[in-house]
Amino acid sequence: MAGSDKAKAIAAVYAGAMLGLAERRGQADDLRGELDELARLAASHPGFAAFLANPLIDPERRAGSLEKMLRGEASDLLVDSLQVINRKGRIALLPAIAAAYAARHDTLRGVVEVRVASAVPLAGDQRERLRAAVKARTGRTPRLVESVDSELLGGLVIRIGDRKADATIRTRLRTLSEALLARASHEIVRGTHVEHGT
Length: 198
Hints:
The chain is of the alpha+beta class and 198 residues long. It contains eight helices and four strands. It is elongated, with a radius of gyration of 25 Å.
């Protein structure tokens, strides 16, 4: 198993344990929000990310810092979980744990994340049609994550997990161009064969 795959697998184990405990306590949704916030903090503040990932920081010192930063500000469930993860030497996996928790939480709630890139912002009716189509196809409630990419020329690129649907004008033009090129090549070859046959 590659390093990143192993890290994801370990993160998934912690995320599953945290979600199970949070669900039993009725805190699964709140814990999702707290983990998302910490993941955003790690992504936007290099100092915090380094605090989590630096193996030279003494785990006891890090435990004390986590306690001071979060106890009373976040749920005891979050702080206690982070302390366990820190003691196990896995605190650097916090962003991956947050991502794994979010994915498992979505599955539990029947939600699927749909990433949508479009040339211009989606109109309200487009958004509703897309939601309805995803719901009909997956049986799950879509949560749209929208972005605008002016290079797309028009249409949409939709990602659901590892699956991608590209309905952009640029892709259609490329497909058409390739089809025309293939047809022209075929006609040239056929014409050559006809000429050789005469």
